[in-house]
Amino acid sequence: MFSAVEDIQPFGRDHTTLSKLFNDWKLSGVVTAGSGRPVDAKVFGDPNQDGNSSNDRLPGYSRNAFLGPDYATVDVRLTRRLYLRPRYRLELAVEAFNALNRDNCRVTITDDGFNSTATDFVQADKTIGIKYFPAYYQRPANLVRATSAYAPRQLQFGLKLIF
After folding, report:
1. Gap between the Cα atoms of 105 and 36, Å rounded
2. Nearest-angstrom CA–CA distance, 103 and 105
3. Burial (CB count within 10 angstroms: exposed 0-12, middle 13-18, buried 19+), residue 37
4. Parallel, antiparallel, or unpaired for β 119-128 and 43-44?
5. Does position 141 have pLDDT exceeding 60, yes or no?
6. DSSP assigned state of 35
7. What is the total count of domains within the chain?
8. Shortest CA distance to 57 belongs to which of 46, 39, 43?
9. What does the buried/exposed string (b/e) look like for 102-115 if buried means 16 or more CB atoms within 10 Å of the residue's CB?
10. Residue 26 in contact with residue 81, Cβ under 8 Å?
């Protein structure tokens, strides 16, 4: 994460017209970037029959075996300060969240309060030859495919009276 604030004051008091137009602006921004979040190869169902169907993993995969998609965003704010009277100021602001409109995909994982499963554990009695199988796993084609996305570019305007 990186952030910066720049108070723009290019002209001094001797340039009254130019200073009224170009002074008292503030530009700030935040750049956030990160690698993908760890994802478990979870199983929907209760294959180990312990009564808890939310903590079972696909056999052969350890905890946090996969990484989800990475994340990067740029948030920018531009503020203009206007002096109305000696004790009154007006601030105009425009903010852009995800200003570059990057498509930040996400895999819905349990940290967000939802379940993302790598496979389904299907309870079905099956006998093949003399071997008995009480259930089987259905594996999907791609475990860490994006299931949704974070918000696209958003603009926000603000007006503040300071007295």
Report:
1. 10
2. 6
3. middle
4. parallel
5. no
6. P
7. 1
8. 43
9. bebbbbbbeeeeee
10. yes
DSSP code at position 117? -
Q: Please give the structure tokens belonging to residue 74.
A: 């740029």
Mean pLDDT of the chain: 79
Q: What is the pLDDT of residue 110?
A: 43
**pTM of the predicted model, to two decimals?**
0.64
Give the Cα separation of 46 and 50 in Å (integer).
7
Q: Read off the tokens for 99.
A: 């200003």
Q: Where do runs of H (alpha helix) occur along the chain?
A: 16-22
More confident call, 158 vs 57? 158
Beta bridge partners of 83: 89
Instruction: Provide the residue range defining the domain that includes 53.
Output: 2-162
Q: What's the confidence (pLDDT) of residue 32? A: 94
Q: Measured between alpha carbons, how far is 50 from 81 in angstroms, rounded to an integer?
A: 63
- By the 8 A CB rule, do 115 and 129 touch? no
Please spell the DSSP secondary structure of 129-148, one letter per residue: TTEEEEEEEE--S-TT---E
Tell me the per-residue pLDDT of 52-111, one tens digit each, with 9 for 90 and over: 777 777 777 788 877 888 899 999 999 999 888 889 999 999 999 999 999 988 776 443
pLDDT band at 112 (very low <50, low <70, confident <90, very high): very low
